């Protein structure tokens, strides 16, 4: 009996970005946002916040990105809310990027991969964020399982927080920076993929001209998750300057810029649509 291989994440992401606009909205139930919505910092507040955001956005944005930590802090009940959010978002047509930033070695990395990239897992997501700072090769269990299951990964390369530079701009013995090395390895993973590879990088939209200044090429034939739009100061108009020829594969990520318009579903939807339209106009 033959089985049909799942459609790769990169192809699915390209299609939904073209259809809905290139935008990722973070689902970040931060205590301050719960308070702004008039909700308690408890499991009831978490559930209402998450259900409202997913119902308002999942049928119109390309990617929803739940931040796992804000659910994990409530223990098993929080994880149950996260499982439901993942299922509901995917059912409504959004791709789900689990923002977990996992990184480990051997069997532990394989277990993390199974949690988010095995279709049999209740937390199975379309993609997951990974940290490569135990060595890029330590990510191999997740990279291989992503390929097998038609999922994707986004590996931290050049993040939007200023502290990241002390590691990411560090220079190896061969003269390449750590960030450039990570991007180069992802470029190898994506070689020959069309319309776009499934192995993405996290590269901050707040970096300005520092990519070129540091000799870093973000063109990896894969998606580039770009945090920093909105509350962190970057705008859609900044994207072509930061990413250059790779800008068409950029998935800008905004969280508070959309979520602050809740709990009104219409406000959430209008804000997300506005950001998506601004990004589409900026990147052509």
UniProtKB/TrEMBL annotation:
Active site: 101 (proton donor)
Signal peptide from the UniProt entry: none
Domain of life (superkingdom): Bacteria
Catalytic reaction annotation: orotidine 5'-phosphate + H(+) = UMP + CO2
Keywords: Decarboxylase, Lyase, Pyrimidine biosynthesis
Family annotation (InterPro entries): Aldolase_TIM, OMPdecase_AS, OMPdecase_type-2, OMPdeCOase_dom, RibuloseP-bd_barrel
Gene3D superfamilies: Aldolase class I
SMART domains assigned to the protein according to its UniProt record, in alphabetical order: OMPdecase
Matches recorded under SUPFAM superfamilies: Ribulose-phoshate binding barrel
Orotidine 5'-phosphate decarboxylase domain ranges (all copies): 22-271
EC number from the UniProt entry: 4.1.1.23
Pathway listed: Pyrimidine metabolism; UMP biosynthesis via de novo pathway; UMP from orotate: step 2/2
Entry's family note: Belongs to the OMP decarboxylase family. Type 2 subfamily.
Record-given protein name: Orotidine 5'-phosphate decarboxylase
Organism for this UniProt entry: Streptomyces varsoviensis
High-level lineage: Bacteria, Bacillati, Actinomycetota, Actinomycetes, Kitasatosporales
């Amino acid at each position: 009996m033959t089985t049909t291989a799942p459609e790769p994440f990169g192809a699915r992401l390209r299609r939904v970005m073209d259809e809905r606009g290139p935008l990722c909205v973070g689902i970040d139930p931060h205590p301050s946002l719960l308070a702004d919505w008039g909700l308690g910092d408890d499991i009831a507040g978490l559930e209402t916040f998450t259900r409202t955001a997913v119902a308002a956005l999942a049928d119109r944005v390309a990617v929803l990105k739940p931040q796992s930590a804000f659910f994990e802090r409530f223990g098993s009940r929080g994880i149950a809310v996260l499982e439901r959010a993942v299922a509901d978002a995917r059912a409504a047509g959004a791709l789900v990027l689990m923002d977990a930033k996992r990184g480990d070695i051997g069997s532990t990395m394989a277990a993390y991969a199974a949690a988010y990239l095995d279709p049999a897992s209740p937390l199975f997501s379309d993609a997951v964020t990974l940290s490569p700072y135990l060595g890029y090769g330590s990510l191999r269990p997740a990279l291989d399982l992503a390929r097998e299951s038609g999922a994707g990964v986004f590996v931290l390369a050049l993040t939007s927080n200023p502290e990241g530079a002390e590691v990411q701009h560090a220079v190896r013995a061969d003269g390449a920076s750590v960030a450039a090395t990570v991007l180069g390895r992802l470029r190898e993973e994506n070689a020959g993929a069309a319309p776009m590879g499934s192995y993405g990088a996290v590269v901050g939209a707040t970096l300005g001209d520092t990519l070129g200044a540091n000799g870093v090429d973000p063109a990896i034939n894969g998606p580039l998750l770009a945090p920093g739009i909105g509350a962190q100061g970057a705008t859609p108009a900044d994207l072509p300057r930061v990413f250059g020829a790779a800008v068409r594969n950029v998935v800008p990520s905004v969280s508070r810029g959309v979520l602050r318009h809740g709990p009104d579903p219409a406000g959430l939807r209008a804000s997300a649509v506005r950001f998506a339209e601004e990004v589409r106009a900026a990147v052509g």
